[in-house]
Design brief:
The protein is of the alpha/beta class and 223 residues long. It has one domain: TIM Barrel, CATH 3.20.20. Helices cover 35% and strands 19% of the residues. It has 8 helices and 8 strands. It has an 8-stranded parallel beta sheet with strand order 1-8-7-6-5-4-3-2. α2 runs parallel beside α3 and α6 crosses α8. The longest helix is centred in the C-terminal third of the chain and has 18 residues. It is globular.
């Protein structure tokens, strides 16, 4: 079964505690928190204080995605706020290896995110430092975008590489994930589905999460 990580970016920002509690009751596995600075991506969201405020109200795994120009400066604040995974963008890190080590030293699970146009070769020398790789299947910065089909071969290529490496690294995808796109994404090798509008935009969150999980699971069985 794929791990379902609803993205808080699509939630009602005026009622975040209730939204987080609702998706937990609906069966979500993780909570994906998009942290945007208005520089690395053209949008602003929230900071570590908001994550810290939500942490006591949820048992979910907090998957913090730093879409920031200087992610290394925010690792400790988000670790203290209650992050479990922290993803940094390869494109934003001058010293990616060092930044991933800093995440682990802060007590969190290190992950790296790649934009759609970023080649997989940037991973050549850091695979041993990560526990998850997040492939963006839209250009980051806004929710509700359509999945980029050209990302499917990239997902499949990375999945094959991870199998060959024998390393236990999760492959996550983020952007345009719906019950319609989840089958192909999971067949290509994704194990974590980050979905915003498909979950928070539904009047029945439990059904939305169940549909995503089943869509991904069916195709995994067929592979």
């Amino acid at each position: 079964m794929p791990i379902i990580a609803p993205s808080l970016l699509a939630a009602d920002f005026g009622n975040l505690q209730a939204e987080v509690e609702a998706i937990a009751r609906a069966g979500a596995d993780w909570l994906h928190l998009d942290i945007m600075d208005g520089h690395f991506v053209p949008n602003l969201t929230f900071g570590p204080d908001m994550v810290a405020a939500l942490r006591p109200h949820s048992h979910l795994m907090f998957d913090v995605h730093l879409m920031l120009s200087r992610p290394e400066a925010f690792i400790k604040p988000f670790a203290r706020a209650g992050a479990d995974y922290i993803s940094v963008h390869a494109e934003a890190c001058t010293h990616l290896h060092r930044t991933l080590q800093q995440i682990r030293e802060a007590g969190c699970r290190p992950a790296v995110a790649l934009n759609p146009a970023t080649p997989l070769t940037v991973l050549d020398h850091i695979l041993g430092e990560v526990e998850m790789i997040l492939l963006m299947t839209v250009n980051p910065g806004f929710g509700g975008q359509e999945f980029i089909p050209a990302m499917l071969p990239k997902i499949a290529s990375l999945a094959a590489r991870l199998r060959e490496s024998k390393l236990d690294i999760l492959l996550a995808v983020d952007g345009g994930i719906t019950p319609e796109t989840a089958p192909a994404v999971c067949q290509a090798g994704a194990r974590v589905l980050v979905a915003g509008s498909a979950v928070f935009g539904s009047s029945d969150r439990e059904k939305a999460i169940r549909d995503l999980r089943q869509a991904g699971a069916v195709n995994r069985i067929q592979v």
